[in-house]
Design a protein that fits this description.
Blueprint: E1 3-6, E2 26-29, E3 31-36, H1 42-58, E4 61-66, H2 70-78, E5 84-87, H3 90-96, E6 111-116, E7 123-128, E8 143-147, H4 151-161, E9 172-176, H5 179-187, E10 193-197, H6 201-208, E11 213-214, H7 223-232, E12 237-241, E13 253-257, E14 262-266, H8 271-283, H9 285-288, H10 313-321, H11 327-350, H12 359-376
Parallel strand pairs: 3-4, 3-5, 8-9
Antiparallel strand pairs: 1-2, 5-14, 6-14, 7-10, 7-11, 12-13
Amino acid sequence: MTRHIISVAAIVLAGTTISPVLAQEVKLPTSMAFTAYDTGTSGFNIAVGVGKMMKDKYGSDVRVLPAGNDVARLAPLRTNRAVLAWMGTGSYFAQEGVFEFGVKEWGPQALQMTLSTVDCNGLSVGVAKDSGVKEWKDFRGKRLGFVVGSPALNQNALAIIAYAGLTQKDVKIVEFASYGAMWKGVINNDADGAFGSTVTGPAKELESSPRGIVWPELPAGDKAAWDRVKKVGAFFNPHDVTCGAAIEASKPLKLATYPYPIATAYATQPVDQIYGLTKAMIVNYDMYKDAAPGSSGLDVKKQTKQWVIPYHPGAVKALKEAGQWTDADEKYNNDLIKRQGVLADAWKAYNTASAPGEPAAFLSGWMAARKAALAKANMPNGFED
């Protein structure tokens, strides 16, 4: 296969405790695939912008495959039919082997990061304006969209409404086949709220529809409310949001965020492959930073380096070259990689011929085995009963 090559000089920035490493040639294949959420979503649009840069700079044809849930986004990556999956917190749930990933066909997945986005946008539940909801306490009894096969979206939505002390029992769950279908459901008055990015295309569609859109706030000053949010979604942080559907830059909303989208790889993918992809995104940032809302958050200086899943060694190499990696980052990352090993060993020990065949019993047994393995390793569970 023909490969396109660019030489990159190592960049040394002050303040890092990691010694700079020698840059190597960046190589990209002539064609490759990414996966992302449905067409028109922020993750899809950002992936398309990055793909265009790779086409323009390296002549590499990138196809972005839309997928309606986390399982569908990861399946092509798992079978080597894609090189990156642009994920959200589904990457964390897959790593942990929980929810839809706690089935015999999946289990803990050794997923690792390259670059991710935190930008002017937020991640929350958009609510139809005509529903009358102004604060999260007003959402009691309303219809909340869920996506079948997407634990990230569903768990994230529950984390947001937990701000007001609401649980799944306090709302009416309406299930949809995909992310796009869920937002269409809100527009069509089949649901009242859906989780997503404030800059996602479907949120703009809801804003333009007769129903309109509002984003009830989650002020950081209410510590008890944020403790409830983090108990359900430990990966969330308060964030002042200045861009998105029905949001004015001059009037920031107090919402929530986490890195999204995350250009995700498997630990088994070659170091040189992930190094090349990550380095291409770093050194050609100016070519795609304005391609779609949220793209500017891929700036190497804005990376969330101590999150809940580790960076791939190829990405670490590129970050070191850019002077954006410290000894503390290295230790934190190595600890997360060790966690993936503990989970993999626990899964191997549990997933035997004697494991229950019935799905609910299998998941229950796995969650108990997972809890015991993490406790033995003195690692946090993250998903308490």
